[in-house]
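Lab notes, practical 5.
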Amino acid sequence: MNSAPQRQSIRDLSGRLDADQIGAEMHELIRALYPLCRSITGEGLRETLRIVGRTVPLELREVPTGTRAFDWVVPKEWNIKEAYIADRSGRRIIDFKNCNLHVLGYSAPIRARVSRRELLEHVYADPAHPDWIPYRNSYYKEQWAFCASEKQRAALTDEEYDVCIDSTLTDGSLSYGEARLPGESEREVLISTHACHPSLCNDNLSGIAVAALLAKHLRAIRTRYTYRFVFLPCTIGPIVWLSRNREAAARIDHGLVLACVGDAGQITYVRSRRDTAEIDRAMRHVLEQSGRPHEMRPFAPYGYDQRQYCSLGFNLPIGCLMRTPNDEYPEYHTSADNLDLMKPEALADSFATILSTLCVLEDNRRYVARVQHGEPHLGRRGLYHKAQEYGLFWLLNFSDGNHSVLDIAEKSGVPFEKLAIGAKLLQDVELLAPDETDAIR
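Output from the prediction step:
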């Protein structure tokens, strides 16, 4: 009786995926999510998670308003139906239906006739980019406001206007989505991305799309590690997740926060607070071997949700992958962060970079050389002609149970992928054996 075929490994996956197809699929997911008005709570966030769930099944979690999470409390749930600024004739000058950035995120409701002077105190604009609508929010301070282009704001010349923000702030819940993909070990790799911003593509529909496609493909293969993907609102989301998942957090050996991964800029990686965690070293090796421009930055306690996972009580080995970092491209947090900014080839490159890094983590083992005195005779085993390409002498010399394949790659300059193949060649002729103490816990 034939046994069932073995599922592919992560390295098999990286070799067969079509970059153009992957990039196009991620771009289409971004296009589907783009119109939704998301925030840190509410129906827009839930609908986003439901749409992502069509790509990879998610467990949807709801955490009630008032729930304490360390020093934070889950806020009231915010939803909005419509909003506008209209002149005395009823003509809508600014309308939420045209762009959901037109309303301050988490704006309190209002329906009133106000003077031009009062209105302008509640309209945000960006004079440096007069055609763009800025994104602003006020999650934890109740106020009402609109956002408009500088040209729209300057056109508000009447003495009075009717303003309407039909929103609600009520007891509800904070939503997040989670996909746990079991591997051979209970030890985990965490991929986290924020899913709370409204119609902004690079920040962070790009992170959502890359994470969703990674989860979709990893779900179908065999992995050593268990992979956990979380899609949640920024800041409060990971704080809530950590407060409810201390046991799971203790199983995390590696992780990445994904944000701003769809623009044409070079890849930027922010190292974990530990600075030399295995994920940091693996990412550095992959980026250096790629030969493409990139930047490695030290950890800093600001920016994206990496700072929550790397906070003092957890200090998890989690880095942050971006292309052009937040606030370093002009379109950041404006209406110009739109579908035109998204490059399918950049999305595919971000995807491939992460997948290559996961390949290193999956294949990074320690070995013990079976021949301890002098080098073995590779010629009579048919391997001498492969020794240089696959780093066989490096593997044989440093496989003492104390050096991993990544350690040897860093010492030798031989690409990790080549060394992983070399280790397999040496195992096949019984010159290397896995270190029995090296199993993932």
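Observations recorded by the TA: Residues 344-363 form the longest helix (20 residues). The first strand starts at residue 59 and ends at 64.
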